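Ex. 9. Protein: DNA-directed RNA polymerase.
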Amino acid sequence: KIIDKCLKVHGTPMTAQVLDKIKAMGYKYSTKAAITVAVCDATIPPEKKDILANADAQVQEINEYFNNGFISNAERKSAVLSVWNQATTDVTVALTKGLDDYNPIYMMADSGARGSTNQIRQLAGMRGLIANTSGETIEIPIRANYREGLNILEYFISSRGARKGL
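Predicted structure tokens for DNA-directed RNA polymerase:
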């Protein structure tokens, strides 16, 4: 709107000069400030343990229903995936609530420069459910995040799903 108004009031030559000055200011100030990211910026939410423990209890209850013949395997799998999806969402919410407005990771994602909530979740929350090479979701979630590090099983589950893209 501003450029359009400038064009209507001052014409093309003046608008071109204004745009050149805006561009020059952008180049100048883009080198004046920077953000660095450290491992300590990826803060793991304290609620994560409770969320995962609650999800484990729900999954155990679902498996007991299945073992007692109350639900089918398809119903069991659907319920388990639903529980883990909700747990992943809950960890994400806890993580985003706990990030300070001046946290470099939050600032990059919030500004749109780099990263997303999903990537922040994998960095400091939990990776969550992963699809296998055939596109089917694996029931075992990846509870760890990249800051904590993946155990061997979580690593192989992650790499197996990633192979599909190759």
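Check your answer against this statement. The CA atoms of residues 131 and 137 lie 4 Å apart.
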